[in-house]
Amino acid sequence: MPKLRGLSASVVAVLALGTAAPAASAAPAASAAPAAAASAASAAKPEPKAPKEFVALRDIDPTIIQEMRYKTRHNFVGERIDGYRQPICILTRPAALALRKAQRQLLRKGYTLKVYDCYRPQRAVDHFVRWAKDLNDQAMKREFYPRVDKSRLFIDGYIAEKSGHSRGSTVDLTIVKLPARHTRPYRPGERLVPCYFPKHKRFPDNSIDMGTGYDCFDTLSHTLDPRIKGRQRANRLLLKSTLEGLGYVNLPEEWWHFTYKPELFPNTYFDFPVTRRSLTHH
Predict the structure, then answer these.
(1) Cα–Cα dist 206/197, whole Å
(2) Disulfide check for 153: which of 1, 66, 158, 245 has CB 3.0–4.6 Å away?
(3) Which of the following is catalytic: 67, 161, 190, 254?
(4) If residue 42 lies in a helix (H) or strand (E), which one and from where to where?
């Protein structure tokens, strides 16, 4: 781990931070054999791997906090999302290196970055699409899309069949003031609070106040929404200016969403799972 010259003690602290039944006759057994073989072949099919240009963010900068929401049930779907097998951030190397530079700037101001999502496999996006089409499943509506009818999630652009995250250079993140407070885990079934409520009433998050919670499907999440003023606006601008000065571009509709440019894979949507194993190439 490289030395961090001139950092406070609070900054250094973040570093610590079954058997089948016999066949009734020979004919059924014979016909079942090809199907069983096909099933076994499918199960043995190797998972896709990440190109060598992808890295684990923790290997580039272990001081950046990782709170990978889609590995948990605290998200707008309400369950762990397909493809998230380990709570790790994976990015293309240039995107990760730019975050390391941003982190160095923020650490010296008494802050740290925290990532919510990084590379997102296509199977996860497919999970979002299936969920969005099921209008009966609105378990997490009160927190994540309280003022949006679920039937409009595609029309309004909150859900799409492709995501820039699947190209590997997009990250969802925020800023946390040091020393970072512990954030309690979400308890499935607990009473939900709208994501646009005042910070002290929303689900607890050690992020500085950005005006809404993460993944808040609401126009208040637009980075420069004029209703966001004072300290909340200043906090958004701190994140925006820090990252945009290092090659990232913000999505205007989401204060937390940034893409590193130029992207290494601007036209490729990957589907390798989020796991350390995806990064091994031997």
Answers:
(1) 15
(2) 158
(3) 254
(4) helix 26-44
pLDDT tens-place string over residues 155-191: 999 999 999 999 999 999 999 999 999 999 999 999 9
Instruction: Give the separation between CA 143 and CA 216, rounded to whole angstroms.
Output: 8
Give the whole-angstrom CA distance, residue 165 versus residue 163.
5
Q: Which residue has the higher pLDDT, 5 or 281?
A: 281
| 116 DSSP 8-state letter | E
Q: What is the pLDDT of residue 43?
A: 55
Q: How confident is the model at residue 45 (pLDDT cuts 50, 70, 90)?
A: confident
**Using CA atoms, how far apart are residues 81 and 165, in angstroms rounded to an integer?**
14
State the pTM of this model.
0.85
Rounded-to-integer distance, Cα 228 and Cα 210, Å: 8
Annotation says 244 is catalytic: no
Cα 136 from Cα 193, distance rounded (Å): 20
- Residue given tokens 């490729």 in the structure block: 268
The residue among 260, 280, 269 whose CA lies nearest residue 93 is 260
